[in-house]
Amino acid sequence: MTKGRDTKPHIGIFGRRNIGKSSLINTLTGQDIAIVSGVAGTTTDPVKKSIEIPGIGPVVMIDTAGIDDTGDLGMKRIGKTREIFKIIDLAILVISENEFDTPEKNLVIDFQSNDLPFLIIHNKSDIAEITPALSRFIEDTYAVPVISFSTLFPVHIEEVVSLIRSTIPETAFHRQTLVGDLISYGDVVLLITPIDIEAPEGRMILPQVQVIRDVLDYDGIAVVCKEREVDAFLKKMNPKPVLVVTDSQVFPKANASVPKDIPLTSFSIVLARQKGDFLNYIKGTPHLSKLRDGDRLLILESCTHHVSCDDIGRVKIPRWLSNFSGKKLEFDVVAGLNKMERPITDYAMVIQCGGCMITRKQIVSRLKPAIDAGIPVTNYGMAIAYVHGIYNRAIAPFMKNQEGIVDYL
Length: 409
Known about the structure:
By secondary structure, the chain is an alpha/beta fold. 34% of the residues lie in helices and 17% in strands. The chain has three domains: 10-172, Rossmann fold (3-Layer(aba) Sandwich), CATH 3.40.50.300; 180-269, Rossmann fold; 277-408, Rossmann fold (3-Layer(aba) Sandwich). The chain contains 14 helices and 14 strands. It has a six-stranded mixed β-sheet, sandwiched between helices. It has a four-stranded parallel β-sheet with strand order 8-7-9-10, sandwiched between helices. The longest helix has 14 residues, at 312-325. The chain is globular, with a radius of gyration of 24 Å.
């Protein structure tokens, strides 16, 4: 399964073997996209599909192995199923024939411990309808909706779709604007985008494209230039931009070129506010001044990519942090949503990239172990701004209406 490469809402389907999880996916989509078999255990590993659900729209549906799998291999499959909790926005627990016992109850405990919204579908109602007693037990005990359904006779399909739509968090569908709340009709936003060894051939990187689209969506005017043209362009530019967004790698150059009366931030910080844990980033970033010799830092990339000789996460940030702190530091990098090899408590700080390739839920879940352990977290752009002495300026555009963070400035 390709992990963490899609920003659409993620929905996981869970339940015992041969319960009808794959059939449910096929029924919801009106397509035979999941393998269906009467043999228990047909789905062995989580299968991720980008699909369109009528009445909901594009989502990523994840079909998982049965939670009642057996043997050593079965335990490994169940382990992979449980890893899905960290990347999904909604869980659907499928039961049938009024069977709701330890496997299901343990799953619900996992859902709750991961703050994961869920609903329950009693499948195969053509064989046995859910009893009023079980329905009451589930609703009274867990305060979640449960619906009786049959993938063979899906007469209640609209009810299921409506239930999914009402249960999945609104944040999974509606993203916060990147910069739209900072601009008005006709405002100019200047984007500084270096074209260097890390820039993809013939195109722009995703955060730059996303900000351009956001400016246009909010009736602004996006102007793009490289860092070498900023000084000359600003002298000619009329009207002046109401906001400048720069690539974090050229923050010092942008800070020197952009007049202090023009707000300045970076693509990474823009993303940090939209989908990162912004409050904890604000709290955690100043800890960069408290690093000591021997501290180990964890750098989290949201995707796997070709590593250049001057890679931002693997080369530049470690170099800048070492020079800033004057300490001998150790760095580990984890790409994509891969597992960490060390316990989170081994780290003095965690530095998360902008996360343009993953969802907010995935970023928040990824940072949760560190936050729970009291380990400071920050973001690429915020860390870079901090070590270059322009942190307060870089976050200033977003400080209005941010409750609870004044004390950390």
